[in-house]
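Let's do one together. I've listed all components of the complex below, 964 residues spread over two lines.
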Amino acid sequence: MKYETIVGLEVHAELSTDSKIYCDCKNAFGMEVNTQVCPICMGMPGTLPTLNKKVVEYAVKMGHALGCTINTVSKQDRKNYFYPDLPKAYQISQSDIPLCENGSLTILVDGVEKTIGVTRIHIEEDAGKLLHDDSFAGSLVDLNRCGVPLIEIVSEPDMRSSADAKAYLETIREILMYLGISDCKMQEGSIRCDINVSVRKEGDTQFGTRVEMKNVNSFSGAVRAIEYEAQRQIEVLEAGGTISQETRRWDDAQGKNFLLRSKEDAHDYRYFPEPDLRTIVISPEEVARLKDELPELPNKKLARYVTELGLSQKDAALIVENLDKSMLFDETVALGLCQPKNLSNWILGDISKYMNETSRSILDTPLTPKRLGSLIQSIEQGKISNASGKIVFDAILHEDKDPETVIQEKRMAQVSDADALTQIAQQVLQANEKSVTDYKNGKTNALGFLVGQCMKLSKGQANPAMMKEIITALLQQ
Amino acid sequence: MELYQKSAVELSAMLRRKDCSAREILSSVYARIDGAEDRVGAYVTLTREKAFEQADAVDAKIAAGEQLHPLAGIPVGVKDNICTKGVATTCSSRMLENFVPPYNATVVERLMQAGMVMTGKLNMDEFAMGSSCETSYFKKTHNPRDLSRVPGGSSGGSAAAVASGEAVVALGSDTGGSIRQPAAYCGVVGLKPTYGTVSRYGLVAFASSLDQIGPMARTVTDTAMLYGVLCGHDRMDATSVLREYPSFTSGLDGNVAGLRIGVPREYFSAGVDASVKEKVQEALSLLERNGAVIREISLPNTDGALAAYYILACAEASSNLARFDGVKYGYRAKDYTSLNDMYEKTRSEGFGDEVKRRILLGTFVLSSGYYDAYYKKAKLFQKKLSAEFEEAFADCDVIATPTAPNTAFRIGENVDDPLKMYASDVCTVTVNIASLPAISVPCGVDAAGLPVGLQLIGSRYSEQTLLRAAFGYETLVGGFDGVAALS
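Okay, and this is what the predicted structure of the assembly comes out as:
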């Protein structure tokens, strides 16, 4: 019996606003425990939240990017539960009227486009973190993360495999990065997701009972978690069992999930309208303004790279998925100095290598679009060889110099003057009579040796292609 | 007449004339506290040392010829659910017995800016839940007009301090009548302002959508002056309204001619003591004889108000009080075996019965499957009631009712009967549900000599009209009783 896997995702993304959602504390990661806090985000008695407008703006931008309806009137609600990392014992979230609703996202899986429905996007506050350590008894709590703004993006159960889910997550991440509204640092937990999985026999039209998985902290973890859970459900069904609606905790280290709570133990969050905050009202003008501010989004960019700039789908995708690379690409293309295809090769080759090795952003180095453009231009125009180009590239990065300066200083300008090259060739042929004889006797590999000697004599500055042509011509005389 | 017996207006004038110093005023009030507190029990915490520092600072400014706020140097007591930096803020609960906030409530900042002198923190029903001050974890407060009786609640300590002269004026908070009912029981003036005009930042929340801090005093003018200090926009409170406020004392001319007073028959039903009705009617007749226009009106939704109030207030309270979980501050049970055990024991031991009753009630009405039947219905009722009031105010300037259906009862008399206790809020809760302002002024005494309260309700932001009407009545009766003799 073949089964189909049904996946729905709830993605929580931390927004990179300067301050927290309901107080003036800095929204900063990695600081000393309990230093980025104030009476408000610590939930002390009598304190009140006031909404950071930026959070609404960021969420609306995401709503626009996912083609959502933006609710110009939405409200905030309290989600009540006890946990030591939640100082007010309720999370301010949005229940029945979220900021954004009814959107969709197009993803590309194995070259095929799929559209995934986006049910809603709402804003909420993050909770703190419990610290467990052998060096102290019990648990301690760090409240720095309390009040960090989050958006929760809820999808429809439109994904049919772990690959769909992975593509969905990666596309969401790309969009968040393009909008500049989240750091998207997985290792810092800026994107987390809850996964709903169910299975059904192929051909069935009704969904199976879904199981929610929590604690999934990486995209690869999501893939493993979905595959594990689908398999678990199939095994239960094959053994004649039934799936019960429950919440399970994914343990990525063990590659297994564990029952967290059954439906009977499900929390009753007792949602009700947050009386300390006013209804969120955004004017249609503001909604329109935020739409106008959207940058070119990844899917549009990809299409443009392929159709207008002639990049392969694969190369285009590799550039688009990285915001730094696409920015460098776009800005360099705009200068019109070099061919987009050659630029793409450089970005996906040496530049990617450099970014990986140094973990630096290419935008923070001396390699400006102008320098990169003229470097590639010099190669395209035959002024320098490809090999020299790499030396110039290193010099730009390490010595902060313009490519023209490096070429001049290192006397790299290629000799492409036919007369000069003929002179060199004649010298070499005279000095290597044996090789000339060999060549004429059919040992064609002597040609390589002779060209090599020419290059050596020219201190590498001879245009190798022209050099080869001239030598060949002279030998055939 | 001792200084502590004088009104803020009189003391302010004396300070300006240098007839006395702020230190002398405070000394007089503290001498009264020392003499009366063991019988009244108004305070949870006294801040004697800080108070004298503040008084001396005012005196120094007066000596330097600085321009001061009219209330500078006036001793003020603060209800113990209003956060005071460095001074314990207990909400009269074991849960917060040792809680010292690192911040001031916005209203406390405003008192300080005006140069007022805080005498201490006043007793209340635990977390403002109660109508007699008897749910306080620490002490019973006695009604200065009759020490065997309750001062009302929840701002019972505030009302008792003002009535006994242990403070010249005080801050209370009012969620369903907690300023007005004790003001009525203790024979003082109490104003519950329009929701949103006084910042709630630093007020330990009971029911966020209903809570409002307000002034309590022995005269209408003092009440008006203190309200002028308290009101104003605060960016720390998202429910705070942005508007200009007039001077609340300038319109007080004692004239009630032409004042249109609506008298809703539902507030004079069978549940209201005959002597209370009689006193309120007498007050209305006096106003009418002096030119006010009395008109009987009907507010048919009044009947549902008490039920709606207890649903809304308890729902919000169940969430607001969830933060008292033993994790971060306040009481934590000593022995526990797990996190849940710690939560359960902490909250079982840290909260009193009334608070627990309301948390349970609120948790129930918000729970899945019951939300629509209770909370949602109560919210709809709130809209209906607000509309009904709005309609009524088309034809009248103020609405007059008894503040409470009865006068102060004996300590212990109602503690075992929560429903009877809840019923004493019947005339006041409608005002909170509809976000309206209302003032309670003394209107004579019943056969037992206990004060009766007249409540005047206004439309939103009509505090000026209310204060003017109240001052008119105060003028007609030749002023209210001053400080209680504590016989």
